[in-house]
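Input/output pair, single chain:
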Amino acid sequence: MKKVQMTLDEALVSQVDQAARRLHTSRSGFTRDALRRALRDLKIRELEERHRRGYVGSPVAEEEFSVWEDEQEWGES
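Output:
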């Protein structure tokens, strides 16, 4: 692992320390997990935006999925 130095305001450090204690982890462990989640969330947002742009560029045709309606089985009512 590589050590990095960060500048954070005291209130944020206090909140991180409290959360780390509640989760029975260290400040570094909490921060690593938070950064991993933030990076995962960023990747998801980027993929969703790419997906959205794809549909804007090539929208679903009006009857594109209706051809499968007769093939669906909904089970017994």
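The mean pLDDT is 92. The two ends are 58 Å apart (CA to CA).
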